[in-house]
């Protein structure tokens, strides 16, 4: 779809492989007071709808997150409409906090948020630059500022995603340079010189302490999104999406076995929601491959696509109440294969 007026082309990774090109916006004329504006005519609207559809297709559940994303989209679309009538207002603050456990979709939402903000002209490129403490904090005096500014420069015009952001703040260590990072981020977030959106991400309790200790930072974060752990039903639906997406399928017995697997695995240590589901499916594929080779016969398309209960039930989760990882258990139970 070609950009026109104050519309913006949305780059779609994986689909439209064309590079993002700098665009020269043509400022449309101010409309008369009695004019009527058709919002559906805004080119950005179609791109935003596409991004929201992708978000719905990619992520199970997370109704509160999807609602907030749609609210942000509505705010920016209406702001564009107001500009057509010459109605000026302050630029909405889009800095965000994503709190939740591992594997709850924070990175995926950040990617789609960047695409949506770009489509609506709030940022210049639909890109996310992900960093952690190690990418920002230096090891000696004078090292932190250049590292932090380099990360900001790479993210300029897009989204800077800071994972486990609370590790920037270590009050127990007076010689720690994380506070310098926070001060630089505060300046950038306030001035918005780089046209940058910053997303802080991490576990809810630690993020709460992080913002409480840095009230200046918290006051600049307009949107706090909480990513809840997935329910059993949601994880099972996620597993089905993943399996189908890789051109596999569960037979009925495997589906029931995987449901049982999730019930057991969710109570064990280090469970990471969709990430753990992905790891479990990868282990099922390993077992399927071994099982098919042992058949020593020609294989059909159905053979190559189907995961059976045997591929699921070989997990140590079914025989070891203390197992935290999805490891294989040989038939003899005499030895344990190391966790993947």
Automatic annotation (TrEMBL):
The keyword NADP does not apply. Residues 1-25 are annotated as: Disordered. It comes from the Bacteria. Pfam families: AAA, AAA_lid_6. Gene3D superfamilies: 1.10.8.60, P-loop containing nucleotide triphosphate hydrolases. Residues 92-231 form the AAA+ ATPase domain. Keywords: ATP-binding, Nucleotide-binding. SMART domains: AAA. SUPFAM superfamilies: P-loop containing nucleoside triphosphate hydrolases (SSF52540). The keyword Lipid biosynthesis does not apply. PANTHER family: AAA-TYPE ATPASE FAMILY PROTEIN / ANKYRIN REPEAT FAMILY PROTEIN, AAA-TYPE ATPASE FAMILY PROTEIN _ ANKYRIN REPEAT FAMILY PROTEIN. Belongs to the CbxX/CfxQ family. This is AAA family ATPase.
